[in-house]
TrEMBL record:
Listed InterPro entries: Nuclease_put_TT1808 (IPR012296), Restrct_endonuc-II-like (IPR011335), Uma2 (IPR008538)
Residues in Putative restriction endonuclease domain copies: 14-173
Pfam families, sorted: Uma2
UniProt organism field: Lamprobacter modestohalophilus
Protein name (Swiss-Prot/TrEMBL): Putative restriction endonuclease domain-containing protein
Domain of life: Bacteria
SUPFAM superfamilies: Restriction endonuclease-like
Amino acid sequence: MEALKLATVDDLLHSADEQVELIDGEIVRRPMTRPYHAQAQGNTREELGPFNRRSGPDGWWILTEVSVAYEPHECPAHDLAGWRKSRLSSLPRGLIDLPPDWVCEIVSPGYERKDTQQIPLLLQRHQVPYYWLIWPEERKLVAHQLEAGRYRVIATMDHQQRARIPPFDEIEIDLGYILAA
């Protein structure tokens, strides 16, 4: 019996397909982006724009579709991820191998297992402080915060609410705008 060979970040970088990511040692295609997914992603980044525009240590890098090399066999492409500029003073030219301070995944139908089970476990191992999930079709957002090495839900919101959600609780976020349908 032949041993299963896990793909590595190097294998991912040599893939001819740009729409792939490395999950649990397997190179997998990312789901096709649907209109509600794209709208929620763009609107979230825009809503968090005040943090992204700040320079200096209290600013953030908020990126979309960014690949993060966590481990030799783990390099997901997050829908949104953010780093405090105090931890990542400038963006690297290649892959980012520093875990983010915040990740937001927009759940796609048929890919729920990755976003709700596989990715949170990876982020917990790497001590990512905040993890948000957005379900655009259901028009809801669930925010998690890392406490004692595990995520706990700190907010469950729908499209009819405005809220201050860590780590961006300096501003009131308009979930109606993010989750507009």
